[in-house]
Amino acid sequence: MKRHLISAADLSRADALLILDTAEELASLADRPIKKLPTLRGRTVVNLFYEDSTRTRISFEAAAKRLSADVINFSAKGSSVAKGESLKDTALTLEAMGADAVVIRHGASGAAHRLAGWVQGSVLNAGDGTHEHPTQALLDAFTIRRRLKGTGARGAALDGLRVTIVGDVLHSRVARSNVLLLSTLGAEVTLAAPPTLLPLAVGSWPCEVSYDLDSELPKSDVVMMLRVQQERMNAAYFPSVREYSRRYGLDAARMARLPGHAIVMHPGPMNRGVEIAAEVADSVRSTIVEQVANGVTTRMAALYLLLGGMEFPATEVAQ
Amino acid sequence: MTDSGPVTDNGSWLIKGVTILASGQQGDEPTSILIDGGSVTAIGPDLDHPGARTLDAGGLIALPGLVDLHTHLREPGREDAETVETGTAAAALGGYAAVHAMANTDPVADTAGVVEQVWRLGRTAGHCDVQPVGAVTVGLGGARLAELGTMADSAARVRVFSDDGRCVSDPLLMRRALEYVKAFDGVIAQHAQDPRLTEGAQLNEGEMSARLGLAGWPAVAEEAVIARDCLLAAHVGSALHVCHVSTAGSAEIIRWAKSKGWRVTAEVTPHHLLLTDELAAGYDPVFKVNPPLRTEADVAELRRALADGTIDCVATDHAPHPVEAKESEWAEAAFGMTGLETALRVVQRAMVDTGLLDWAGVADRMSVRPARIGRLTGHGIPPAAPAEAVTTAGASKSRNTPFAGMELPGRVVATFLRGVPTVLDGKLA
Q1: Could you say which of B106, B317, B358, B425 is catalytic?
Q2: Quick check: B286 contacting A, CB < 8 Å?
Q3: Which of its termini does chain B have fewer beta carbons within 10 Å around, N or C?
Q4: Percent helix, strand, coil in chain A (nearest 5)?
């Protein structure tokens, strides 16, 4: 595996399966009375969050702590030089503190990429602008595999599964990472969205594209709903929130068109009544709460493999 | 390379063994050029001039001093990025004898006072001529015409007006500007960028922007403005110059406008002749520029359009920035690249080494035509500067070059300005 996890494209099929299988291994830990492993004792993991994201930050924090790493939370809102310290200077500061891994969430696409050029430790991208969010894709793949193939599905990929991702693909880092990872794992991905919310060059992506959600539902094993961001609602991407919801929202009637085994996913936070109806979000098909739990396990696996695989410092070996 | 023998006549230089491919005439035969009293007085194989300093230019090529229609010298206001002194030194090292200084300084060059200040700073620096460009609108605000006539009548004799960095997007204001400058043979140099289509735009809209999650910058945002401006220029019978053409579609529109006989000229930057948006893959903002780097197909078409004369000239859009403006996230970083010191080498690689343009063509596109478009007298008259093509030792204050680490052919050995060397042996004279 590479030293950093910045894009889902960094992961080969073997890498991705190794993470999923390791996550499955670590999941059994959750049933034990003591949930902690000593694997990353003495290692420092910095959570560098330029955007508010309690969900993702807590998930990474719990993952690092269960592996006995020391966790430093560094919340820095507003990234411009005018507002304060530059990303590079922050990186040098973290470097001086001896961070073994930096988990970064940032509003600018490519921020994780840039950070990796300035620090020695591993960089884990926890979402950069409208680029990628690879651990979200990993936890989604893990969730899909567990639900549709069972917990004993180690070594299994997602070959032949049909995944439909619905909504604002253009601005979605979750969609970008999922298209890459799920196709690496053999799934057949279809993006369903109004044309305004798809990149013009989406034809170069390893997936199919549809403007018609209803025609995709009967053949979907997985439907993944994306959040409609508040700032898109009045920017001419669609005429009105109600029309969007009518055409691309997942309500009970649409859910009824899914095959019996199909699951409904959402990375959260949800706009109930916009992209997803309450009765769908709370239905048995919904994996939304599981996704949160699986997030911790998957991130543990990623940290374990990125950091645990590295050699210990010479001093530690001498002792 | 320079003869350091006794000098009795400071004003005269004999450049020996040089090949003049710039005159447009046949003949690859090495010859000699005699420069006396500030100009070329004789060309021939057996020239001799007692007391003249000699420059052994065997194997070198003589071009007329280059003229840049599009330079950001940053002074006044951003002397941390560049000054007239350092920018013109970079220009001389790149083979330039004249540069047009863009108006987006602080304060903006929208009054006679500011353009005269820049013009005077250029004369003091002495590395090359500095021809200030005046802003079209007050403060580049796009709302009210600046005092174009007063700038034209000033000591700086401004003829090229541009809000470069911003587009004069209001069609009525653009019409009036084009119309108004007819009174003094002016030209409006438009930075063609529809502001609404490029809100927050970061990178050419295409496969790369989709993959990298960077807001797309559609080609149509440039092409639609160019098409409108060509029609406006035709309607009022005025001269339009299109800055930094970056797309295949723009070249096609300009070719069409020229076929109608309309007074439209255009420039392309060295970086748009060589680099593509693929380079943004690492999110290094050194490749962030306005207009953005486009695709392989665009590069090929821009080269073709420069070769067939649809695009009149190469202009650098030399845009120096301090280190911190580029050491950041992509979206935070400043737009722009340096270019004066690398332009000729990039053109050699993109146009000459590919067989698209000969050296006479280079002289035409980098000296003769830009001098004509910029209404510069005393420039673009071949031959004046012996050059093999730019230097590595930088004079610009800034280092935001996208060509770092790239193998480029040629180098500028010497540059002459009105008979006086500004560069010798690749160093400032």
Answers
A1: B317
A2: no
A3: N
A4: 45, 15, 40
pLDDT winner (highest mean) among A36-40, A81-85, B168-172: B168-172
A88 vs B210: CB contact, 8 Å cut-off?
no
**Strands ordered across the beta sheet of A101-106:** A70-75, A44-49, A101-106, A122-128
Nearest to B207 among A114, A173, A201 (CB): A201
Same fold, A8-133+293-318 and A134-287: yes
Fold of A134-287: Rossmann fold (3.40.50)
Q: For chain B, list the domains and their CATH numbers.
A: 65-381 (3.20.20.140)
- CB B324 to CB A81 under 8 A? yes
Largest CA-CA distance found in chain A, in angstroms, rounded: 67
Across B191-220, average pLDDT: 98
Query: Span A8-133+293-318: which CATH code?
Result: 3.40.50.1370
CA distances to B131, B187, B240 from B263, in Å: 22, 10, 6
Query: Which amino acid, residue A152?
Result: G
**Most B-contacting residue of A113, A119, A179 (CB-CB within 10 A), to test interface:** A113
Q: Round to whole Å and give the CA distance between B65 and B227.
A: 32
Distance set, CA B347 to CA B29, B68, B277, B426 (Å): 23, 13, 19, 18
How many whole angstroms separate alpha carbon B410 and alpha carbon B412? 7
User: Catalytic: A36?
Assistant: no
**% of chain A beyond a pLDDT of 90:** 80
Look up the pTM and report it.
Answer: 0.91
Q: How far is B80 from chain A (nearest CA, A)?
A: 16
The DSSP H or E segment spanning B251 is helix B248-259
Catalytic residue among A55, A88, A114, A247: A55
Beta-carbon separation of A110 and B330 below 8 A: yes
SS3 B317: coil
Asked if B199 reaches chain A (Cβ–Cβ under 8 Å), the answer is no
**Which residues in chain B have Cβ-Cβ distances shorter than 8 Å to A128?**
213
Q: Where are the domains of chain A?
A: 8-133+293-318, 134-287
- The overall longest dimension of chain B from CA atoms, in Å, is 67
- Look at strands A222-225 and A263-265 and give their pairing: parallel
Assess whether B3 carries a catalytic annotation.
no
Give the CA radius of gyration of chain A.
20
CB contact under 8 A, B213 and A88: no
Any idea of the CA torsion for B221, B227, B232, B233, to the nearest 10 degrees? 110
- Grade residue A234 by pLDDT with cuts at 50, 70 and 90: confident
The answer to whether residues B376 and B68 touch, using CB atoms and an 8 Å cutoff, is no
Q: Which of A36-40, B260-264, B288-292, B365-369 is predicted least confidently?
A: A36-40
CB A122 within 8 A of CB A4: yes
In chain A, which residue's Cα lies nearest the Cα of B280? A110
Q: Which of A87, A109, A129 faces B328 most closely, judged by CB atoms?
A: A87
Provide the 10 A C-beta neighbour count for residue B177.
Answer: 26
Hey, is the C-beta of B332 within 8 angstroms of any chain A C-beta?
Answer: yes
Q: How far A116 CA sits from the closest chain B CA (Å)?
A: 11
The whole-number pLDDT of residue A30 equals 74
